[in-house]
Every structure is written in C-alpha cells, then in structure tokens.
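FAQ

Q: What does a record look like?
A: Structure on top, sequence underneath. For example:
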C-alpha cells in the first residue's frame, strides 16, 4: 500500500502562507498536508508521514482546467484530472481517479474557500488515507 499510493502530496509552503479566500473556485491553489492517517482493516488508523505513504510534498490544484498536479520537487510532476468539482457554499468538493494499474484508487477532497482548510481521502481496495491540510492561492 505505502509504495503504491498515488502522488497527491503537499509542501510546507502552504503552512506559512495566508489561507485562501476567494468567492468562487477559480485559479490555482497550492496545498500542504498537516496530518496524514493510514487506515487498514483490523489494524485501524495510524498517523504516518508523506514519505511513509509515498506522497510528494506539493499539490497544485488548477480549478479552471480541473487538473491536480503533484510535484515531488526534483521528479517529474504528475497530472491527474479532477472528474467532479462542485461548489457548495464556501466549500469546493473534488473527486477523481488516480493512475495506478497495480492498485486502483480514488480521491476526494473538500476545500474551504473561506479558511483554506483541506480535508481529503485516497481510497484503494485495501486501505484509506485520511488527509488534513491547508491551501493558499498560488503565489
């Protein structure tokens, strides 16, 4: 599981910048996870690091193009299409399918456009990652 989680990670840049605050989901946001939990049947959930589950440090969300780009800072970026994007009040709800033939997965996220807070999940057939983080307008 750990070696096959799709790259959808985030960097520390977002931890120190001001939270996002726009009235509509448009433009580009940079995000960083502050907490990651890996949940597996029987064993339950435990806190892990980006490296433990193979998540790169930076995630860029392009709301206009409906594309999520993970950047491993030194490796080639990976683009993943956002299949669904819905605005509900101050939340933007996202869903997509990761690219991994060995372990197919889906991802979903809720981002507060008021606070920049990100809550997300990556799900495979045998485990789930629960992710909490922060997003800011692309600098």
């Amino acid at each position: 599981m750990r070696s096959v989680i799709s790259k959808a990670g985030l960097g520390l840049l977002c931890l120190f910048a001001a939270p996002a605050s726009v009235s509509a989901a448009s433009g580009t946001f940079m995000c960083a996870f502050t907490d990651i939990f890996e949940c597996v049947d029987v064993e339950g959930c435990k806190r892990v690091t980006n490296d433990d589950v193979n998540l790169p440090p930076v995630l860029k969300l392009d709301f206009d193009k409906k594309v999520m780009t993970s950047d491993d800072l030194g490796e080639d970026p990976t683009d993943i299409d956002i299949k669904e994007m819905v605005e509900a009040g101050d939340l933007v709800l996202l869903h997509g399918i990761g690219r991994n033939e060995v372990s197919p997965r889906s991802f979903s996220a809720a981002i507060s456009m008021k606070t920049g807070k990100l809550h997300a999940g990556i799900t495979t057939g045998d485990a789930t990652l629960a992710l909490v983080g922060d997003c800011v307008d692309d600098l």
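Q: Is there anything notable about this one?
A: The two ends are 33 Å apart (CA to CA).
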